[in-house]
Amino acid sequence: MPHPGEPSPSPCPAERARTLVEHASSAAVEIPGLDLLARPCPPFPLVRTVLPDGDVLLLAPADSPAARHAAHDRDGGLRALLEAVDVAPVAVRHRIRGRAWAGGLLRPVPADRLAGHARLLARRHPSVGTLGLEEAAASYSGRVAWRLLLLEVERVLVDDLWGTAQAGGEDFAAATPDPLAEYEADLLQHLAASHPDQLRLLGALVADRLPGSHPEVVPIALDRYGLRVRFLDEERFIDVRFDFDRAVEAPEQLRTAMHRILHRATL
């Protein structure tokens, strides 16, 4: 725990944005000035991953506005904005935890990088193997169902449980996502389903702030620096953050960090 008067550790804005762009529940791309009503396209889940250089690799339906206009652009890329929406993986009121926006230039993946990028996306998202990704990687000619696109990020804005902040494309490229983000949904669902009694113990650390005498306790966020828990009754709720003694860099370190927090609650 930080000493009294010391600020709690927190991720930088670029790290928060990269974590959301990579791992948030859903994402969509908007092209400013594009009349989406002219040729409507149904919503789709946007499969994406962030490349080591900070570009965002996107798999989009070939008939989506983003794919169609990027494929025919001759001006070096379309101005585009990716919005990632982060939703708590446990059932609770007010589940949206944050949003991140990444703005930059959208263009098709160059032909000489198609195969490698397709393999990378398939490794990180095994489900795309059922989407005809091999066709998309092989050629842009013919009737393919999916297109691989690159968003060259120039700026990011994040609005989440930490607050609102922005960062440049270079900071975004240099940042790394939170090491627990890939596992967070499973970990929070496990905590909520299998350890409700232990979670209620945390209320002893903030008893003077709790809504009601027996509030519901829901774990809503987990990162390398700590656990965020929501205490709520029928009328109101509060979110309380419990910092780890030291940053957790891998899931196997989480058990010890959680035990230390629960031990403090029993003192």
Task: Describe the secondary structure blueprint for this structure.
Blueprint: H1 13-23, E1 26-30, E2 47-50, E3 56-61, H2 65-72, E4 78-87, E5 96-108, H3 114-124, H4 133-138, E6 146-160, E7 163-168, H5 169-174, H6 184-194, H7 196-201, E8 216-223, E9 226-232, E10 237-243, H8 254-266
Antiparallel strand pairs: 1-4, 2-3, 3-6, 4-5, 5-6, 6-7, 8-9, 9-10
Describe this structure as you would to a colleague.
- The protein has 267 residues and is of the alpha+beta class.
- The protein is built from eight helices and ten strands.
- Strands 1, 2, 3, 4, 5, 6 and 7 form a seven-stranded antiparallel beta sheet that branches.
- It is elongated and about 65 Å long.
- The two termini are 15 Å apart.
- The relative contact order is 0.16.
Task: Describe the structure in brief.
This protein has 267 residues and is an alpha+beta fold. It has helices at 13-23, 65-72, 114-124, 133-138, 169-174, 184-194, 196-201, 254-266, and strands at 26-30, 47-50, 56-61, 78-87, 96-108, 146-160, 163-168, 216-223, 226-232, 237-243. The radius of gyration is 21 Å and the shape is elongated.
